[in-house]
Amino acid sequence: MSEGSANKARVAVITGGGNGIGRAIVEAFAYAGYLTIIADINQADALALEAALNARSLQARYLGLDVADADSIAQFFATVERDYGRCDVLVNNAGIAKSVAYLDYPKDQWEKVMQINITGPFLMSQCAGRLMQRRQSGRIVNIASVSGERASWGRAAYGTSKAAIFGLTRQMALELAEFGITANGVAPGPVDTPLTQQLHTQVTRDKFLDAIPMRRYGTPQEIAQVCLFLASEAASYVNGHVIPVDGGFLAAGITDH
Question: Exposed/middle/buried for 84, CB within 10 Å: 0-12, 13-18, 19+?
């Protein structure tokens, strides 16, 4: 791609884009015509996705990123600015979780979850916001979770970090609106990914299915399509909201009849 065509392409940055929900988001934006940057610490998965999309004549590029490292974030956006001069969309998807009983939750694990799940999006959005400010246009989409609204056992750090994403999204929506930037979020419920297939026992799955009116897990593609909507002109007046994509999990009380 020539420098001129690269500068004209809309650029979407997706963190944690190498697999799971992030991979589906990358694919959705690539098929929608964005030059999609796969920002991930996992090089193997991200490079494989980059090659698969480029083989379909879609625009995708892997750039290594550790969202827990401020220097890595700064270097990442220095490359984006040098090579493209713009960032039109940022999807803060990267995150980690570890289930430990509250009274036993280790401080170092708490700090790691917070660094990746909330400080990372804070710094990423600052850097992306500065590029968006120049064009007086931009979309930031934060991946929250229903765990930010409802507590689940063992998720003291994860749930708290995702609740903080709700507040951060509102703060960004307020302060960035004057620059033509919107900030919104998506709160997935249980989603079938390689990670949940590995971590969720059958007992866990059954409990979730009992609590979800639609009686199924979501798909990564269903999350990705809402992200694509929030980045589109159709959502130009949507700002400061986190949309649950959860099959009715947050809406439900007693589900049996």
Answer: buried
Percent of the chain topping pLDDT 70: 97
pLDDT digits 0-9 by tens, 159-181: 999 999 999 999 999 999 999 99
Q: Is 158 assigned a catalytic role?
A: yes
Marked catalytic residue, from 31, 158, 217, 237: 158
132's CB contacts (< 8 A; 6+ apart) are 87, 88, 138, 140, 176, 179, 180, 181
Q: Decide: helix, strand or coil at residue 11.
A: strand
Count of CA atoms in the C-beta half-sphere (13 A) of 182: 19
Q: Which neighbouring-strand residues pair with 89?
A: 12, 139
Helices (H), the chain: 3-8, 20-31, 43-55, 70-84, 107-114, 120-135, 156-176, 194-199, 202-211, 220-230
- Please say if the pLDDT value at position 195 is more than 90: no
- The residue among 35, 49, 70, 2 whose CA lies nearest residue 220 is 49
Distance CA 69, CA 80 (A): 17
What pTM did the predictor assign?
Answer: 0.95
